[in-house]
């Protein structure tokens, strides 16, 4: 099993168009690290972040004394992470479905990206994450909320730096569809498609993987009318919500 074919081209282009934006996000990353530590709720020493991109959150937590390991599929993002990161961060290039780790971690996280493949793919990934976390450890995952993408975001367009994007919703597959292009090359479009889950749906899937949801945290949402991002929305209107998982022992 390998990750969907659209993934590498999409994230390569996204990185190419937005690679300077991290310098503007230092304050956000500190707040996000605060949130992660609060949501975990106990002291933890080690963490594996998959889909880690250029490693922004890993660097922030590494600076707080957490032993960070990252896993990312896209070579350009891994190289950027290595250039920007301390050698104390263990950075891996690899596929979620095939990469192996020789140890377990207190926390395993997947931020802003769960839902790439089919339901079977997601179930396989949950089982792998269960194997990567210690018996008393915690898994946290961002889950895309179908109500937001179906009823709020679909049809909306945005501009970010040199990139433009438009959202749509695949009703049959219950997937958010996010299409990007460079403003000077509107015919060269790259698209990501992520499966959205209700709480009941993702809870059922987690149970099949031997995991139980013990916490649910609503995320933010885009206020398209005012062109502003709202950092905390309701569970029904957030673009994604974070689930906190424990192993069923």
UniProtKB/TrEMBL annotation:
Key words of the record: Methyltransferase, Transferase
The enzyme's E.C. designation: 2.1.1.-
GO molecular function, one term: methyltransferase activity
Gene Ontology BP annotations: methylation
Record keyword Methyltransferase present: yes
Methyltransferase domain sequence ranges: 48-137
Enzyme class: transferase
One matching Pfam family: Methyltransf_25
Name of the protein in question: Class I SAM-dependent methyltransferase
